[in-house]
Amino acid sequence: MSAAGLPKGEFRSAKRQRGVGLIEIMVGILISMLMVLIIYQVYLVSEGQKRTITAGSDAQQNASYGLFLIGQDLMGAGQVISASATALSGCAMLRPIPAVIAAGATDNDPDSITVFYGGSSSLSTPAPLLSSAAVGATPPGAYVVAAPLPFSPNDVVVAVQGANCTLSTINANGVSVAGPTGLATISHTLTATPGNNTTATYGAVAASLINLGQADYTIKNGDRIAQLLLEKTYNIRWEEGELSETARGEGKFGSTGKR
After folding, report:
1. Residue 112 host element (H or E)
2. Cis omega (within 30 of 0) for bond into 139
3. Residue 236: which pLDDT band, with cuts at 50, 70 and 90?
4. Closest C-alpha among 253, 247, 169 to residue 209
5. What does the angle CA 69 – CA 75 – CA 76 come to, to the nearest 5 degrees?
6. Do 211 and 120 meet the contact criterion of CB atoms below 8 Å apart?
């Protein structure tokens, strides 16, 4: 027996052992991983709801803007062309129908809405041609009309005679007026429009020229769209003072006579 009363060869620690075992560490890691997974799932659900709400809001805004643009076009449907309905009645390319709704080719294809209107503010009736014009020539034959004022460069015009109709745009400096007669000669460029008749010859008096208004203008990067004018300015500081006596004194207007 030893002095401590224990059999010889046996030793016990006088202090109790303290610390964390391997099992406790593994259990703690498992619980931490579960917490991270739960937090990630909550974040994922919240982010999905946020994306759904944002996508729905964007879709509503796009739809509202699209309906606004369609409404703007529909309000102008039939403008100008109503006075040219008789002349355009035989033109298959530009039927004088204010709005046409065409069904999609299949159930998955969207329907299309075609709105037809003119933008000319100076001419709403057809102007008869005073000489023949062969649009199939190079360059296309010029149009001659009696009223030059309603036509200006970049206007979209259509020549009509029966079932033949040709759409074109007036060239820059394309309107020239003969001084003695006052007749206007209009040079133009044919537009690349499906169904556009580019070979017809339009006869005098029998054909008409209709002005549909200004063509769309595309502003490109680098175009000059504004001018800057630099002027010198003055900052004036006013100070209160007293005026000297004058010959009029306290007399009112006219008190010093006419001269």
Report:
1. strand 112-115
2. yes
3. confident
4. 169
5. 100
6. yes
Q: Which residues are bridge partners to 190 per DSSP?
A: 168
Q: How many residues does the chain have?
A: 259
pLDDT for position 14: 52
Write out the two tokens for 157.
């015009």
Neighbours of 155 (CB within 10 A): 23
Nearest Cα to 155, choosing from 204, 217, 198?
217
Q: What are phi and psi of 180, to 5 degrees?
A: -65, -40
How many CB atoms within 10 Å of residue 133? Answer: 24
Structure tokens at 229: 């004018």
Q: Using alpha carbons, select from 142, 146, 147, 93 the residue that is nearest to residue 120.
A: 147
Min mean pLDDT across 2-6, 125-129, 168-172 is at 2-6
For 106, list phi and psi in degrees, rounded to 5: -130, 175
Region of 162 (left: φ > 0; alpha: ψ -120 to 50; beta: rest) is left
Q: In the 8-state DSSP scheme, what is residue 216?
A: P
Nearest to 154 by CA among 140, 170, 177, 166: 170
Q: In whole angstroms, give the CA distance from residue 173 to residue 187.
A: 8
Instruction: Please state, in angstroms and rounded to a whole number, the distance separating the CA atoms of residues 182 and 185.
Output: 10
